[in-house]
C-alpha cells in the first residue's frame, strides 16, 4: 500500500528548545496509529508537522505525493481543510454557536448550502450519539458531549485523515471510552486514517500500531526482537 503520510528526518525547535530531532515515520491509508511518549517528548509537534499546521525546520513531510513542508501558507490551509480533520483535548468549539452550527460551519466553508449543512450536522451528531446536543451551545454541554461534537465536526467533512491530540485527555474514564469508541467506529467503518496522540496506554491499545516518541525521535520498540539463544535446547528457546 502506498504511504499516505510520511515524515522524513524532520526537525523542529522552538527557540533553543529542540522538539523534534530527526524523526521519520510512515503511515498508510486507513491505519490507526497511536503516538505515545513522555510529556514534552515532541508528540504534539509531530502531529502538527504531519497535519501541516507547523512547518518543520528541516526534513520532509508528505501527504500522498504532496510535499506539505514546501507549500505556502494559503495552499497548506486549503489542503488541510479539504483533507484533514482535527480533534483537540478541549473540543475548541465556537462558544456562540450551537453544536449543530459548529458542525455545519466547516461544511458551509466547503461549499454546502446552509440547510443541507445543518441536516448533515444533525445526522453526524446522531452517529456520535449526541443528537440531543444539536441545539445546545458548548457552555451547556458536558465534557464528553463537547468531545463528541468535536469528533462529529472533524468527521463531517469526510477527511482522509483525522489528527487527534489527547481527545479524551480531559474526560473521566467512562466518558473518554465512549468518545473513543465513537471515533474509532467512524474511522474504521470509513477507512479513515487516524493519528492519535495519547499518554494513556489503554487508549493506545485500540490502535493498529503504537509509535513512541522520546526526545524528539522515535524510540526503538520497547522489546526489540531477540534471536533465540542457540545454546539452549530447542524446546526452551
Ligand atoms: N509553541 C511552542 N513554543 C515553545 N516551546 C514549545 C512550543 N511547542 C512545544 N514546545 C516545546 O517543545 C517540546 C516538545 O513539545 P510537545 O508539545 O511537542 O511535546 P508533547 O510530547 O506533546 O508533550 P505533552 O505530552 O506534555 O503534551 C517541549 O519541550 C515543549 O516545551
Layout of helices and strands:
Blueprint: E1 3-14, E2 17-28, E3 32-36, H1 43-50, E4 58-63, E5 66-67, H2 73-83, E6 84-87, H3 99-109, H4 114-127, H5 143-156, E7 161-165, H6 173-190, E8 193-197, H7 201-204, E9 209-214, E10 217-218
Parallel strand pairs: 3-8, 3-9, 6-7, 7-8
Antiparallel strand pairs: 1-2, 1-4, 4-5, 9-10
The structure holds adenosine-5'-triphosphate.
Labels describing this entry:
alpha/beta, 4-stranded antiparallel beta sheet, 10 strands, binds adenosine-5'-triphosphate, P-loop_NTPase
Note down, in words, how this protein is organized:
This is Putative ABC transport system ATP-binding protein. Keywords: ATP-binding, Nucleotide-binding, Transport. Residues 5-237 form the ABC transporter domain. Pfam families: ABC_tran. InterPro entries: AAA+_ATPase (IPR003593), ABC_transporter-like_ATP-bd (IPR003439), ABC_transporter-like_CS (IPR017871), ABC_transpr_LolD-like (IPR015854), MacB-like_ATP-bd (IPR017911), P-loop_NTPase (IPR027417). The protein is an alpha/beta fold and 237 residues long. The chain has a single domain (3-218), classed as Rossmann fold (3-Layer(aba) Sandwich). The chain has helices at 43-50, 73-83, 99-109, 114-127, 143-156, 173-190, 201-204; strands at residues 3-14, 17-28, 32-36, 58-63, 66-67, 84-87, 161-165, 193-197, 209-214, 217-218. The protein has a six-stranded mixed β-sheet with strand order 6-7-8-3-9-10, with helices on both faces. A four-stranded antiparallel β-sheet has the order 2-1-4-5, covered by helices on one side. A hairpin with a 2-residue loop joins β9 and β10. α3 packs parallel to α5 (143-156) and α4 packs across α5 (143-156). The longest helix has 18 residues, at 173-190. The chain is globular and about 65 Å long. The model has no long low-confidence stretch (mean pLDDT 90). It binds adenosine-5'-triphosphate (ATP). Adenosine-5'-triphosphate (ATP) binds at residues 14, 17, 19, 37, 39-45, 199. Residues 14, 17, 19, 37, 39-45, 199 line the site of adenosine-5'-triphosphate.
Amino acid at each position: 500500500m502506498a504511504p499516505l503520510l510520511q515524515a522524513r528526518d524532520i526537525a523542529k525547535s522552538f527557540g533553543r528548545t529542540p522538539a523534534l530531532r530527526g524523526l521519520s515515520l510512515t503511515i498508510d491509508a486507513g491505519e490507526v496509529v497511536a503516538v505515545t511518549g513522555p510529556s514534552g517528548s515532541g508528540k504534539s509537534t509531530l502531529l502538527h508537522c504531519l497535519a501541516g499546521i507547523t512547518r518543520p525546520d528541516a526534513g520532509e513531510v508528505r501527504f500522498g505525493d504532496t510535499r506539505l513542508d514546501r507549500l505556502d501558507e494559503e495552499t497548506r490551509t486549503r489542503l488541510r481543510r479539504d483533507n484533514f480533520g482535527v480533534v483537540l483535548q478541549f473540543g475548541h468549539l465556537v462558544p456562540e454557536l450551537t453544536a449543530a452550527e459548529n458542525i455545519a460551519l466547516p461544511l458551509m466553508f466547503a461549499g454546502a448550502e446552509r440547510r443541507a449543512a445543518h441536516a448533515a450536522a444533525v445526522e453526524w451528531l446522531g452517529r456520535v450519539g449526541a443528537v440531543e446536543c444539536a441545539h445546545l451551545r458548548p457552555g451547556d454541554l458536558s465534557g464528553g458531549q463537547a468531545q463528541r461534537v468535536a469528533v462529529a465536526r472533524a468527521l463531517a467533512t469526510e477527511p482522509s485523515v483525522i489528527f487527534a491530540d489527547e481527545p479524551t485527555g480531559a474526560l473521566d474514564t467512562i466518558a473518554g471510552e465512549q468518545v473513543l469508541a465513537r471515533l474509532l467506529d467512524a474511522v474504521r467503518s470509513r477507512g479513515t486514517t487516524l493519528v492519535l496522540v495519547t499518554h494513556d496506554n489503554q487508549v493506545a491499545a485500540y490502535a493498529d500500531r503504537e509509535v513512541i516518541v522520546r526526545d524528539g525521535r522515535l524510540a526503538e520498540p520497547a522489546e526489540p526482537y531477540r534471536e533465540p539463544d542457540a545454546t539452549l535446547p530447542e524446546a526452551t528457546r
